[in-house]
Structures are given as structure tokens and as C-alpha cells.
Amino acid sequence: MSKLIFKVSLLIFVLIFGKTLLAQSIENQKISGFRPIWFELNQKYEYGDKYSGALGTYTAKHRPLGIYSPVVNKTFFVYGGTKDYDQKHLLCMIGVYDHSSGEVSRPIVVSDKMGVNDPHDNPSLLIDDDGFIWVFVSGRGKKRPGFKYKSLAPYNIDGFIKLTEEEMTYPQPIKTKFGLFNFFTKYTGIRQLYFEKSNNGQIWTDDELLAAIPNQAGEKSGHYQVSSIYKGKKVGTFFNRHPHGIVDMRTDLYYMESNDFGKTWQTVDKVKLSLPVTDLNSPARVVNYKYANKNIYLKDMVYDKNGNPICLYLESNGHQPGPKSAPYKWKVTFWSGFEWVTNKITTSDHNYDMGSLWVNENFWGLVAPVGIPPQKWGVGGEIEIWSSIDKGHNWKKEKAITKNSNFNHSYVRKVVDGKAPFVFFWADGDPHEFSKSQLYFGDLKGNVFLLPYEMKDDFEKPEPISFLNLKDKKQ
Length: 475
Known about the structure:
Elements: H1 2-22, E1 38-40, E2 44-45, E3 48-49, E4 52-54, E5 66-69, E6 74-81, E7 91-98, E8 103-105, E9 108-112, E10 123-127, E11 133-137, E12 146-151, E13 160-166, E14 169-175, E15 180-187, E16 191-198, E17 208-211, E18 225-230, E19 234-241, E20 251-258, E21 265-266, E22 272-273, E23 285-287, E24 295-303, E25 309-316, E26 328-335, E27 340-348, E28 356-359, E29 364-371, E30 382-388, E31 396-400, E32 408-419, E33 422-429, E34 438-442, E35 448-450, E36 459-460, E37 463-464
Parallel strand pairs: 5-32
Antiparallel strand pairs: 1-4, 2-3, 5-6, 6-7, 7-8, 7-9, 8-36, 10-11, 11-12, 12-13, 14-15, 15-16, 16-17, 18-19, 19-20, 20-23, 21-22, 24-25, 25-26, 26-27, 28-29, 29-30, 30-31, 32-33, 33-34, 34-35, 35-37
């Protein structure tokens, strides 16, 4: 009888507590290699999923993912990873590359998303004036909250503490001379843009609504944004509009900026704006793409040396993958000092191809997967550098970064203040069926390194990679 009671008690214990015991968090643990997540949205069309594949450095609205610190001569970077090859359980990871030794550390789990497999919950990164590393982990809606984590020691990734749990998607944290600033999104039936700010990261202001533009019938639109900072003071954002709140109809391009830590906002030509922006025909509108019946997919934003904003995006004829939505045009829209100018760079074959933009006085550069892809009509392709020497008006192919690849390369992410050889990084994978995904980094000279998928030691040197002879070589 006592054995029966024991078995029944054990069964009850397992039913009640077993799931919790099996799902223990592995936060602050090291993983023995860099294994970015593979993801499939499962919105199927004739030419494949709306987007799927190597999404470890997804999305364009998570920014930044990498920061170089000259104080310690190291590049810190975050990504969405997994523990093992065959797992799709998302771990928000951080790694560090030491430019002095040429070695990379084992990655650390900052946030264990506890069964979530969606890289919409990927992290972004900030380093404050004291060297503490902040990881902003995205959520999605109210059911999957976002988090803010802070390192236990300056310039050190060995341990993090969770400071907040909140509704926050697509975090875009920025260090300013006034304090910490964060652009982000909330899912309120539609995607709406917000910002928050803090003097020290411990106490944050209430979330403030940035834009809620209705369509002509008065129905609210949703928005996506990309943001940047100029000389530590001016923060700005380009954003699009989702008519009727339908994300697959994303169109139009708007811009607004603040020079006083979000107290007041204005257009590029100093027209004052009230928050939230609610006028369809607001002076903040840069291009009316709805009139042309075009979709736009925001990729990157930078300022030139004079503080003029520049937006990188992809224009297409619709949301479905394949030739129906072609051509997929890469474009830049920028303020010349007295007017908005838009120019085409090149084309690729998918709305969710993602690249990064560099701008200085004599060189504008795009690094993006615009080369002919191993898997056509899927996310990513072969990575190329395109450049302009006349401030974005005319562009040419500079060089190919990858060639003869087995899988598509996707979501090229720029490192803030990046130093060679770790100037940008990305992941590869088959966009049409589940595959292994790996992380790479490179520089504008064309050097490429593969981050170790398996690590025996805490610090190892990444492998220099030549893509010239990889077509039949197992990756």
C-alpha cells in the first residue's frame, strides 16, 4: 500500500512540476560554439515561405547587433542562437571578438526564451559610458514580454542580470550625450512606434507614442522604423506605414528627428511636429509610395558628416516571394541639404534580403546579399559590396564577398564603429528547407572569417574562409 501511495505521489509531482524541471533556464551559461537559429514563418506561397532560413541576425528593426569598443579593443555582438544543430529553441546569445589576440570567446546565453522558436525575439545591444553591456531582448505583444539585461561587470560578458520585463518589440537602443534612448514597437492590434529614455538605465520614462498615422478613412496604420544618431545628440527615425494595419501593404516613407532627447520633434527642414504624428500627409512624409502602389522594406539608416539622414530600403510590387513581386530594387533616399533625393543601387530577389550601409565623405558602400543566390527566390544570396563615389547618385559593384556557396547568406549586420576584420557579420542557411546555419564576419576589403560551430576551448581563432572553392565542399 505504501508503495502504491509513493507511486501515485510521484506521478502527481511529475505532472505538476515535471515540465518546470525539464524547462530550466540556461541563462548565463556558455555554449560550445556559434549556432544561429533557423526559422520558418510558415506563410507558404508558390515560390516558398514569405521568409525563412538563416535568421540568427534578424530583423532589420533589431539594431544594433554589434559594437566595437576601442577601450578594450573588442567587438561585442549578439544574435539569436540555439544549443544544438537540431534545436529551434531560441537563445539570445552574446559573443566577443578580441582584436588583440584574434580570438573569439565561447558565446554566453543572456536570455533563454524558454521554448520560443521565433527570432522576432532576437536581442540588440548597447554599451553605456561606464562600459556596462546592455542586451535588449525583444518580445512580441503582451504574451511574450521583452527584457533588459545588464552585464555584472564592465566590458565583460560572463554574467548578466535581468532588470526589466515589459512590452517591447524591435528594440533600437542608442547611447546619447543625454542618456540612454530606445526606439521600439508595441503590438496594439497594429504595430505602433514608441520611445523611452533613461538617465542611467535603472529608471525609464513612460513609453511615449511616436506615430499613429491613419489612412484616408481614419483607420489607424501600423509602422516599422529604422533609427540612428548624429554626434551623440540628434536621434532620428525613418518609418513606413501599413494601410489598414496590414503589414503586407507597407508603403510610404517618413522621417523625423529630435535634438533634445525626445522633448521636441521636427522634420529634416525644421518643421515642428506634435506627438504622436497622426497626419497621413504630414510634412514628415518623404516619399508617397502608396501613390505608386509600391511596398518598401526598411533596411538601414545613417547620417552623413553634415547630419543629413540617409535611408536604405528595398522597393517591390508586393509581399509574395517570387517573380510576382519583382523587381526588388535596393534604394537610398537622402536629404541633400535642401531636398530629398532617391536613387536605385541594384536589385535582388526577395523582400527580406537585408544589408547594411556605410557612408563617409568619399565613399558610400552597401554590403548585401544581392548576388545570384544558391537557393533562388529565398531570403538571402551571395554577398557583394556596391559602392558610390558621388554621394549615392550612381553605384557599381565593388567586389563579391561570397561565391559558390552551398547556402544563401542573409541579414548582413553592421558593427557600430566597426574595426577590421569584424566590420559586419551574418548567417547562412537554406531558406527553403531546414539546414545547418553558421555565423561569419568580414570587412570591406573582402576578408571573411567563419565563427567556430564547435569549440573545445573558451577562446579560439575564427577560420579564414575563401568561398572560391566551396561549391562541393561540405560546410
